[in-house]
Design brief:
There is one protein chain. By secondary structure, this protein is mostly beta strands. It has one domain: Rieske Iron-sulfur Protein, CATH 2.102.10.10. About 0% of the residues lie in helices and about 30% in strands. It contains no helices and 10 strands. The protein has a 7-stranded antiparallel beta sheet with strand order 2-4-5-9-10-1-3, with no helix packed on it. A 3-stranded antiparallel beta sheet has the order 6-7-8, with no helix packed on it.
């Protein structure tokens, strides 16, 4: 028995936490990441073959825990809203030594510097999708 299957991706939202494959050279496009608490937002692919999750990604040079790289990457799409066009963005506190990003939709504020990505203004266990960051020489590789 054959069943007809129809696919259309024109209007469909990508899956939250979709594929990520990004390369950042710390000496060129990632120079802001050389400083602690620096960040780089990549809302869409910059080159052919680059994959940036659902809403794009943000890479941060945060606080190093347990001898990691100190670099963290998160999806820009809010995990509560789960829509490509409702993204987190830096708050004014991010210019004052904190890495706080706020969702334009639900108003949740997320802390990015420690690698946790938790909402800090709500008492609920909701976190940003975090991606794997590998440092090799002067290049960061972000994948999932």
């Amino acid at each position: 028995m054959l069943a007809g299957v129809s696919c259309s991706t024109t209007d469909a939202e990508p899956e939250y936490g979709a594929l990520v494959h990004v390369e950042v050279d710390l000496l060129t496009d990632g120079h802001d990441l050389q400083s602690p608490l620096g960040y780089l937002s990549i809302p869409a692919p910059r080159v052919s073959g680059e994959l940036t999750g659902m809403g794009g990604i943000v890479i941060v040079h945060g606080i190093d825990h347990a001898h990691g790289t100190g670099y963290y990457a998160y999806d820009l799409a809010c995990p509560y809203e789960k829509k490509r066009d409702i993204r987190i963005s830096p708050t004014p506190a991010s210019e004052q030594g904190l890495l706080l990003f706020k969702c334009k939709g639900c108003g949740r504020v997320y802390e990015l510097a420690t690698g946790d990505g938790s909402a800090v203004n709500r008492n609920e266990p909701i976190r940003l999708i975090r991606y794997r960051v590998t440092l090799n020489g002067e290049k960061l590789y972000i994948t999932n």
